[in-house]
């Protein structure tokens, strides 16, 4: 797979120091305005492809490999990393890694027979936490970090938190102060702080233990994600459900703060003489309904109508990939409360297979083989016509 990134890049966590569009240091380019392809890991004469990316506010961790576990490794780009390297600093103790998860302070690596959590702020020779999987390696099959056998890994000590085996956990997403869990049966559970409605239970109170999101009961969900203070999930049918904080329009619902900012710009334009004729029906127009906190799951109307395949949340933004040419949800310097397509991928007819959000940036994976099949199909259709 090939990966692209865009958004916050103050620590060079997206692109190399000499690959900015203006030819200046990418470490100084705080914002990457358009999708920029990430460099592959080079080891001698070998180029290893990136199979997974996970991101925090100032760092990006990438799992590289050539299909063989013994040849895989993890590179960390961003704060504290080697900015002269094409893909960041290679983590010495990561060879053979099969899954990775990064927070702002710790890096968790999963191997076939063990899981380790390392402190990114200290140069230690032993992990801060570890779990031996030899006796329970079968239980780890199908799980992805931060889920581990019997529980999950959180960002700060104590790292390991147990989960009931009866829940049948399949996926887990961690927000700033809450967690969203997807079970094998497609049910959604949440817990943690609920001050911004991010738990989806209809109130703003916290929950110490996993509690089912009753508004979604009976509907089978296929994926979940958690932002700073908002949550999203995708049903098996490709419908997108959102809840929590909507201050920056991250839910795709009308945001009053964004409309006020837009109105302020319009007022400034009018003062400079760039105003447009007033609409005579404007005075009788009903006031718009805005949503700052959505305490229950809401179905998002994505236009044009499409089936959502996967979704990811940043601190205050959301990105989604569809089943067509991989259109995404948000990508602008100006905040938006309406889902917008990233034209770069649609124009190039690039098929997006995965999307991963850091706090303030977005990473997108494309499948070259699918792109080639689509191109060949179009050529065949042209010949038949």
TrEMBL record:
Record organism: Gouania willdenowi (Blunt-snouted clingfish)
Domain of life: Eukaryota
Disordered: region residues: 254-285
A Pfam family assignment: RCC1
Per-repeat ranges for RCC: 186-237, 238-324
SUPFAM superfamilies xref list: RCC1/BLIP-II (SSF50985)
Name of the molecule in the record: RCC1 domain containing 1
